Amino acid sequence: MDKKKIERINFLARKSKTEPLSDDEKAEQTALRNEYREYMRNGYMAEFSNTYIVDENGSKRKLIKNE
């Protein structure tokens, strides 16, 4: 996610604290937040796919995804 979109999310959040957002701004804010959540979720999943658990015997096993 690029920096301009994150700045826009923050701008809309600050603006909503001082004045009501228009319907278009609310829709934009929701869309940007959902895009940010998806971006973060994908980053975490990539990180977890490369994570291993090491037990007390030194055996490594891959962290599995619970569905």
Secondary-structure topology with pairs:
Elements (H helix, E strand, L loop, with lengths): L2 H16 L4 H27 L2 E3 L5 E3 L5
Antiparallel strand pairs: 1-2
CA-based gyration radius: 19 Å
Task: Work out the helicity level.
Answer: 55-70%
Counting copies of identical and different chains, the oligomeric state is single chain
Count the helices. How many? 2
- In CATH, the topology is named Helix Hairpins
The CATH class name reads Mainly Alpha
Mean pLDDT: 91
Q: Identify the CATH architecture.
A: Orthogonal Bundle
**Major sheet: size, sense and barrel closure?**
2 strands, antiparallel
Give me the strand/helix succession: HHEE
Can you tell me the number of structural domains?
A: 1
Which descriptor suits the 3D outline? rod-shaped
Secondary structure class reads mainly alpha
Low-confidence stretches: none
Q: Trace the largest sheet across and list its strands.
A: 1-2
Residues in β-strands, percent: 5-15%
Describe the structure concisely.
The chain is mostly helical and 67 residues long.
What does this structure look like?
The chain is mainly α and 67 residues long. It has one domain: Helix Hairpins (Orthogonal Bundle). Helix content is 64%, strand content 9%. It is built from two helices and two strands. The protein has a two-stranded antiparallel ribbon. A hairpin with a 5-residue loop joins strand 1 and strand 2. Helix 1 packs across helix 2. The protein is rod-shaped. The relative contact order is 0.11.
